[in-house]
C-alpha cells in the first residue's frame, strides 16, 4: 500500500471562516438567550472566561502542531507522550465530541431555519445533517469553498 503525500488544499481564508463558524456556531445563538435571561450580565463574564480558556488551549494545540506535525495529531500527541491507551481514548473522545456537536448544531440550526420558513425544525435538522455529510465527502478544496 503506497502512502499519498499530504498537500495543503485549503487557503487562509478557508481556515479563517471555518474557525469563526466553528467557534460561533448556531448553538451559541440558540443556547445563550436563556442563559443571559436567567443569569444576566454574569453570563457574559462566564462566556469571556470560557473564551480565554479556549484561546489558550488552541494556542497550545497550535504549538504542538508546529512542533510535531502529524496527520493524526489530536490522538497521536497523547499516544507519543503517554502510550497507546491515551491515543486510543483521545481519538474516540474527539470523535464522540464531534458527533454530539454536529447533532446539536443541526438541531439548533433547524430551530433557527424554522423561524424563517413554516417547516418544523425536526424536518430541517436531518436535511442539514445530510448537507454537512455531503460537504465532508467532497474534495478538501470544495469543502473549503462550501464552508467559506
TrEMBL record:
Keywords: Amino-acid transport, Membrane, Transmembrane, Transmembrane helix, Transport. The chain crosses the membrane at residues 12-30, 36-58, 93-117, 123-144. It is a multi-pass membrane protein. One of its GO terms (biological process) is amino acid transport. It is found in: Membrane. PANTHER family: GABA PERMEASE (PTHR43495), GAMMA-AMINOBUTYRIC ACID PERMEASE (PTHR43495:SF5). This is Amino acid permease. It comes from Micromonospora mirobrigensis.
Amino acid at each position: 500500500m503506497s502512502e499519498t503525500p499530504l498537500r495543503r488544499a485549503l487557503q487562509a481564508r478557508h481556515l479563517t471562516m471555518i474557525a469563526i463558524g466553528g467557534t460561533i456556531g448556531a448553538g451559541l445563538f440558540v443556547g445563550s438567550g436563556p442563559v443571559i435571561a436567567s443569569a444576566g450580565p454574569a453570563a457574559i463574564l462566564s462566556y469571556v472566561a470560557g473564551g480565554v480558556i479556549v484561546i489558550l488551549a488552541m494556542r497550545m494545540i497550535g504549538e504542538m502542531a508546529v512542533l510535531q506535525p502529524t496527520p493524526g495529531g489530536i490522538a497521536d500527541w497523547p499516544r507519543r507522550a503517554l502510550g497507546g491507551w491515551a491515543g486510543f481514548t483521545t481519538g474516540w473522545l474527539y470523535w464522540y465530541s464531534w458527533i454530539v456537536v454536529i447533532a446539536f448544531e443541526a438541531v439548533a440550526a433547524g430551530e433557527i431555519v424554522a423561524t424563517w420558513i413554516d417547516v418544523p425544525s425536526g424536518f430541517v435538522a436531518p436535511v442539514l445533517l445530510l448537507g454537512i455529510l455531503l460537504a465532508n465527502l467532497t474534495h478538501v478544496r470544495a469543502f473549503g469553498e462550501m464552508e467559506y
